[in-house]
Amino acid sequence: MTTTHTASPTPPPPPEAPSSSSNQFRLVRLGDMAFVWRPRIAATYGALLAVITTVFAISLSVGEYEIPLSHVLPAILGSGERLDAYFVQGVRLPRALTAVCAGGALGIAGAVFQSLSRNPLGSPDIIGFTGGAATGAVGAILVLGGGMLQVSLGAMLGGIATAALVYLLALKKGVQGYRLILVGIGANAMLLAIRDYLITRAELTDAMTAQVWMIGSLNGRAWGEAAAVGIAVAVLAPVILAVGPRLRLMEMGDQTAYALGVPVQATQVIALLAASALTGAAIAVCGPIGFIALAAPQLARRLARANGTTLVGGALMGAALLLTADLVAQRALAPSQLPVGAVTAVIGGGYLVWLLYREWRTGRA
């Protein structure tokens, strides 16, 4: 007599408990309204605001003419010493505001591009939009001999035109992440060739002007630049925040987003154009400063342990990074001042190497 042994089924493993506090939240009710409160994200955003405020105050205080921190606020309000008010209101305040607004614009634009491409490498620096804006600005300098207004318009038009071209070339039943990145890298290479050709055909003085501009700097930025990028952020950031919930749903896949009623292509076009215009506005006032748009969204996302797009976090981190980098650029080799683009390139290069290594280890690059 033979006995048949039937293997007992292996019990399924118990569900894993959440490994981080990213999923912790509280439902807060205020009257008839209710919203989700995530303590970790709120603490991260609060810390970033504290960093921005601290570095902002230090930026107004230090320099060849030192101003005590206690005198900074009266100087802003115009009630302090006349010399303090001159340096704060006329020199340092517009430069610091330009850094905050441009850094915020690059950070939120980087979050949009990375959300659309679903890849941390999908920033404006990598996929050509920064190159398009820079080529437009260089064309305005070398071909048209334009001033600040023409350079700004050239950067805006260059960024938007590049965004439209890359979107159309990458469009095939929607925009897929890797296709967008590959098309963008190709477009960036062609724009770089056009930019170099324009420089080789220009007069020496104009070529040097364009080359200095392409490093990226906040030296000598005044109220006009601060107002220009501030208005761009005030107009375009609300548009991006309005489509933010759709972007988070689209990160689950286009088909899922369609099923949930999200107009995928319309959302892609709106987000892409608004983010490209923000990138162009930032580049128009301070040149093609690299790596802020690449690093800010990912750093904010990791600090907050968020699972999806962090538009506000990207903007805050971008502002903190550019403001801090500009302070380092001013004081590292004082009294000489470095272009802030050189500082962000040094820091961002190391970050890019780490990011590529991490993507390779996880098999996504």
Automatic annotation (TrEMBL):
Signal sequence residues: none
Stretches the record annotates as Disordered: 1-22
GO biological process assignments: siderophore-iron import into cell
Record localization: Cell membrane
Domain of life: Bacteria
Protein's membrane topology: Multi-pass membrane protein
Primary site of residence: membrane
One Gene Ontology term of the molecular function aspect: transmembrane transporter activity
GO CC terms: plasma membrane
Residue spans crossing the bilayer: 42-62, 96-114, 126-145, 151-170, 177-194, 222-244, 256-275, 281-299, 311-332, 338-357
Keywords: Cell membrane, Membrane, Transmembrane, Transmembrane helix, Transport
InterPro entries: ABC_BtuC-like, ABC_transptr_permease_BtuC
PANTHER family assigned to the protein according to its UniProt record, in alphabetical order: FERRIC ENTEROBACTIN TRANSPORT SYSTEM PERMEASE PROTEIN (PTHR30472), FERRIC ENTEROBACTIN TRANSPORT SYSTEM PERMEASE PROTEIN FEPG (PTHR30472:SF24)
Family note: Belongs to the binding-protein-dependent transport system permease family. FecCD subfamily.
Protein name according to UniProt: Iron ABC transporter permease
Organism: Nocardiopsis gilva YIM 90087
